[in-house]
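Last lecture ended with a question: if I hand you only a sequence, what can you say about the shape of the protein? Today we answer it with a concrete record. The protein is Flagellar basal-body rod protein FlgC. Below, first the input exactly as provided, then the predicted structure, then a couple of comments.
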Amino acid sequence: MNVSSVMNTALSGMRTQTSKVSAIASNVANISTPGNSRVDPDTLTANEDQSVDRLMELTRLIQAEQSFKANAVVFEAGADMWELLMSIKRD
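The predicted structure:
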């Protein structure tokens, strides 16, 4: 596995977590909206039969935040490695 693929994988993970946070925010913002369907953050599909549980949404938000941070650290490490490789190549 090369540095570029590691960075792409981390970037994909960050995008996934961003989508999850968006779905969670929509669920929480529309809790009291009549006829609103809950969006499952994992599959991003609407589920009309399920009500929004604030505690579960907060838990999912924290999980998404931690996953985003982990992917960001991997991405930064990959960027640092890429920069180091480029400086070695120039010398």
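Comments.
1. The chain has one domain: 3-88.
2. Residues 3-88 form one domain.
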